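Lecture 7 notes: from sequence to structure.
We start with the chain below.
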Amino acid sequence: MSIANEVNDLSIEMYRRMLRIRHFDTQAEALHAAGEIPGGVHTYLGQEATGVGACMAIRPDDYMLGTHRSHGHPIAKGAELAPLMAELFGKRTGVCKGKGGSMHLSDFKVGSLGETSIVGSGMPVAVGAALGAKLQGHDRLSLCFFGEGASNGGAFHESCNLAAVWKLPVIFLCENNLYAVSTPVAVSTSVTDIAVRGVAYSMPHCVVDGQDVEAVFHAVSEAALRARSGGGPTLVESKTYLYAGHSVNMGRELVDRGGEVDEWRLRDPIKLYRKKLMELGMSETELDAVEGKVIREIDDAIRFARESAYPTQDEAFDDVFVDRLPLPSHLLDADASNAVEKV
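Predicted structure tokens for the same chain:
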């Protein structure tokens, strides 16, 4: 795929998906405040170009691992909005049958293997999926999102090392939004660019403007080509920014950011891309029509979530591995059976 110097289906879809994330998460904030969404909610507001540019540079059947900030990633990958919203509501029609919630979404239909609240935990999973693809002999790859805070953890270094040694088809995409919860990156990290850590693993690496959806798209497209051709992993660092706090009602609002937010809003990814599409010939009326349709999609998703049923009590243990593994036959004597029962 490529983006020509003209409006095409790909560029319009990029704009549409960024709008879907923006309006989905804006509504999620409001619904959480109204008490309709339980638990924690982590929005993706301000980082839309990174997720969309990256996900649209790979195929629908490629694997994708997100983070606890997990609505934006599956939406960027093309997931249906209604089941995602229902999951936030804890309804049985959600992508995880109402048992995952905001931080633990997965949608295998679009290759989303899951997001978790454990920082950096998707990285070993992405490496495992890439290893599976290589062993099976097909050219699927793994795209793994993580924050700059995760790059200071052991899972990052172990995953990068193993992927590099075995030349696995993985794209490690660091979303550097400058803060780990409320800790500025300069306080916790010794390097200015996370990408330079790729040097330690002989891994191709680059830094990209995370507010420019096409810049992200091109960087990840190059990494995807390398991965599919047997060239191994790539570390891409996207310099981006999160407008809100770490999560709704918690986090970055504890930090005095001065005029930092306003400065970053001047480079809002959606406004930047809207301006570019207008320069390429789209009218305000056409762009407003795209956004209007997205708003209706979000309204339909909320309606679907509200009208859906909650899981019933007898569904509590569905989809949970509860059966013991079978014991070897030589252990199945009376004494062994009694010992197992006591355990």
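Points to note: The chain has one domain: 9-342. The longest helix spans residues 9-33.
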